[in-house]
Amino acid sequence: MNIAILGVGTVGSSVIKILQKNKDLISARAGKEIIPVVGTVRDLNKDRGVNIPLTDDIKSVLNRDDIDIYIELMGGVEKPFSIVSEILKKKKPVVTANKAMLAYHRYALQNLAKDTPFGFEASVAGGIPIIKALREGLSANRVEKIVGILNGTSNYILTDMMQNNSNFEDVLKKAQSLGYAEADPTFDVDGIDAAHKLLILSSIAYGVHGDPEDILVKGIRKISNEDIFFAKEFDYTIKLLGISKITDGKAELRVHPALINKDRIIAEVDGVMNAVSINCDALNESMYYGPGAGGDATASAVIADLIDIAKGNKNPMLGYAQNFKKMELIEQKNIQTKYYLRVKVEDRTGVLASITNVMSQNNISIDSFLQKPRNKGEKHTTLYFTTHLSLEANIKRVMGILENFEFVLNRPFMIRIEE
Amino acid sequence: MNIAILGVGTVGSSVIKILQKNKDLISARAGKEIIPVVGTVRDLNKDRGVNIPLTDDIKSVLNRDDIDIYIELMGGVEKPFSIVSEILKKKKPVVTANKAMLAYHRYALQNLAKDTPFGFEASVAGGIPIIKALREGLSANRVEKIVGILNGTSNYILTDMMQNNSNFEDVLKKAQSLGYAEADPTFDVDGIDAAHKLLILSSIAYGVHGDPEDILVKGIRKISNEDIFFAKEFDYTIKLLGISKITDGKAELRVHPALINKDRIIAEVDGVMNAVSINCDALNESMYYGPGAGGDATASAVIADLIDIAKGNKNPMLGYAQNFKKMELIEQKNIQTKYYLRVKVEDRTGVLASITNVMSQNNISIDSFLQKPRNKGEKHTTLYFTTHLSLEANIKRVMGILENFEFVLNRPFMIRIEE
Predict the structure, then answer these.
(1) Do A321 and B288 touch (CB under 8 A)?
(2) How far is A73 from chain B (nearest CA, A)?
(3) What does pLDDT average to over chain A?
(4) Which of A119, A172, B166, B260 could form a disulfide with A95 if both were Cys (CB 3.0 to 4.6 A apart)?
(5) Rounded to whole angstroms, how far apart are CA atoms A203 and A197?
(6) What is the largest CA-CA distance in chain B?
(7) Which of A277, A310, A314, A273 is nearest to A294 (CA)?
């Protein structure tokens, strides 16, 4: 089987190297040899350390008729979508790691890939075979809930903050110098990357309508040492979670930092590792853990897809051989969780009463409260609240009101609690 | 697709109920309806709570030509092997949860199932799709090591012993009353069940020769509160592990209780849950966690196999479409690990010197040593050692010598340390 790789970067180079290094094993498993015959790059002058022909002329590769499977590793959304569509229209199988393209065009791609194999295991949680587990391994089940640590960069930063009481900006710089974060970290630390992955998983789990912009997405930039202090004090850890579940017949999807009890197994997932916990009706909870990124890990998933295709396996792209009703997304204001609230205030009489009044008037019921003794000479203090289950709309309203009190010194900060 | 279930017990009833309850979803995923049309039982008078025809005449079911897939849930080894062989010879697909049959006859079954789908996801770790992950998800990789908590009963008992300082016999009784342990718990607590599963996983990972009797298997019956005390003191937990790895070009398989550092993620797997950690060359470590037993969890895996077969997927039974060289097992005496040794002795001059002399003469190097102050009035004390990497043959020899010293009061007890 001849393979063309569109976009030979870190992952593409790993694909080529592993196909060559593990050729005996991969051939035995696939039943035939899988041979990378050509790769495309933008800059032919840059050394990729691979020993196959490279070209900067994608068209010439798309027009070859000796290619059995195309691997798309170019990145972006619309350009790869157009190229992948063109390939699928010719009934040629495609394997991709492109989560952004899938988050926007997953159903269009599903239609195009009706009779053509389309692999995307590498798009979520790197090398962990989570697409396969969810789409095939759990196929007897109604999925009820997915909770994932889906972004290694954010998890690396939060782990360091928890373990070393370091602050966000410093750890981000460290992550960048170690290659764990991009020069522009927006996609990773603002939750966008995780949102793409959550949409993909949810579409397999129960089919959801909606684009990444439609779901609640918050990043980790504003988490401070005070939040870390509180988390430790109350036996929580802080993780950037992707959460997807069924609420009143609708799909509730959200990506945000969350306080989770530190004795949950997903709380132990540290550094750049990813993990996805899935609750189903028959199986209950299962969890999948492994590296979320890296050339070799991602290539491992790409090649698993190639082997599946070589064996002639026919898995409908999103897991449904026949049409199945898709879920609507729940409106964000109707989401209910527990909340942690941090409010910096002037330390004087009546402040706590004013705040708790506002909360009670807006149906926010306090579960716990912490105020540390003031440091000598300081005139302000920080109040920490956790709430019982509350409506997103109500907590937002409360935060707006608090912000306008003259004794509230900063914008109040909130983290959702996931139990 | 018409399904016959040979042996309708707990798992079989769950299969029928889930197929009926999730019919819409399962049909959409499989592309066709999967209908349980008949089940066999030994005793027709016992109510199974299922609404399909049951018979005690297996022959009549095997002779029907309207059955598309047979599910074997009878248990045992030779009888189901003979029946499954008969079905496979007729080129009818089989799905089984029978790990004992697979542990003894996996390669014979592989030969019989060359052109016929044969699913056995349910045979290892209940509902966790670990066969699929290892056989398909990690197919690009050379597997280097598998470490699994593969028996929920033993894990339940050890978890209780660690958490409550309870003793083996009491927790076993509790587990039996809760339905977590059988009246005869031998298979579970003596490591035999885990050994069957470890052989199955290893055969997929790299193909191993050998029967369950050929591998090192130790159970958990002799673990005492003193061992629990030591584990806690040195930040270990005790788990019954199945370990499989490549050592000098041979396969090293062993099942035994092990001391593992309590901050490892697999150390957090408590109660009846299972987990399998897999190290590979491209992906490094990934881990799979979930319920190891139970009717619905196991049925979830059985039905996933049915859906795969309905979709026309063609996965070679043990993952190899072409022949691939199998590994020989390493001789047990050549296995190297670190060890923990507990020796009860008379508390008098020269005892420690004698023991450490024997150890050094047999190339056992001590890593740590603990002796607690003797309780008032007692004339004996317990010595706790851990060793550096040592040969199994040497530690066995040392234990034999120690046992014969007149100042050694009990048979010394050893637990392997897994780092």
Answers:
(1) no
(2) 18
(3) 96
(4) A119
(5) 10
(6) 80
(7) A273
CB B114 within 8 A of CB A105: no
Residues 6+ apart with CB under 8 A from B138: A129, A300, A304, B278, B280, B283, B286
Distance, in Å, from the CA atom of B193 to the CA atom of A217, rounded to the nearest integer, reads 45
Q: What is the predicted pLDDT for the residue at A377?
A: 85
Which one-letter DSSP state was computed for residue B134? I
Rg (CA), chain B: 24
CA distances from B13 to B1, B26, B37, B294 (A): 18, 17, 13, 12
Mean pLDDT for the stretch of residues A280-290: 97
Cβ atoms of A101 and A118 within 8 Å: the answer is no
Tell me what pLDDT residue A126 has.
87
Question: Could you tell me if A95 and A299 are in contact, meaning their C-beta atoms sit under 8 angstroms apart?
Answer: no
3-state helix, strand, coil in chain B (%, to 5): 40, 25, 35
What pLDDT is attached to residue A35? 98
β-strand B336-346 against B413-417: which pairing, if any? antiparallel
Query: Quick one: chain A helix, strand, coil %, rounded to 5?
Result: 40, 25, 35
**Which of A136, A300, A312 minimises the CB distance to B304?**
A136
Asked if A296 contacts B285 with a C-beta cutoff of 8 angstroms, the reply is no
Residue B373 has a pLDDT of: 83
Alpha-carbon gap: B305 to the closest alpha carbon of chain A (Å): 8
SS3 B271: coil
Query: How much of chain A, in percent, has pLDDT values that exceed 70?
Result: 100
Please report, for residues A17, A233, A364, B118, the alpha-carbon distance to residue A388 in angstroms, rounded to integers and kept in the order given.
Answer: 53, 18, 7, 50
Name beta bridge partners: A254: A216, A243
Do residues B203 and B318 make contact, with C-beta atoms less than 8 angstroms apart?
yes
**Which amino acid does the sequence have at B299?**
A
Q: Answer whether A115 touches B (CB < 8 Å).
A: no
> Does the pLDDT value for residue A416 go beyond 90?
yes
**Residue B348 corresponds to which amino acid?**
R
List, as ranges, residues 213-252 from A with C-beta within 8 Å of B.
none
d(CA B4, CA B38): 5
Which of the 8 DSSP states describes residue A8? -
Residue B314 vs residue A240, higher pLDDT: A240
Indicate yes or no: CB of B22 within 8 angstroms of CB of A311. Answer: no
pLDDT at residue B3, as a whole number: 98
For residue range A218-233, what is the model confidence (pLDDT) as tens digits? 999 999 999 999 999 9
pLDDT tens string A158-202: 999 999 999 999 999 999 999 999 999 999 999 999 999 999 999
3-state secondary structure at position A156: helix
What pLDDT does residue B377 have? 85
In sequence order, the β-bridge partners of residue B94 are B70, B118
Strand, helix or coil for residue B305: helix
Q: Which two tokens stand for residue A84?
A: 């992948």
Task: Give CA–CA dist B385/B365, Å, rounded.
Answer: 10
List pLDDT tens digits, range A44-72.
999 999 999 999 999 999 999 999 999 99
Q: What is the pTM of this model?
A: 0.96
Structure tokens at A343: 């409010």
Residue B213 carries which DSSP code?
Answer: G
- What are chain B's domains? 2-131 (3.40.50.720), 132-291 (3.30.360.10), 336-417 (3.30.70.260)
Give the residue carrying structure tokens 């052989």: B199
Tell me, what DSSP letter sits at residue B71? Answer: E
* B142 at interface of A, judged by CB pairs closer than 8 A: yes
Q: Choose among A53, A107, A113: nearest CA to A85.
A: A113
Pairs across A and B, CB distance < 8 A: 217
Tally of CA atoms within 13 A in the half-sphere of B93 that contains its CB: 26
State ipTM. 0.95
Output the six-digit token pair for A109: 């791609």
Q: How many residues does chain A have?
A: 419
Q: How far apart are CA B168 and CA B222, in angstroms?
A: 8
Residue B342's H or E segment, with its range, is strand B336-346
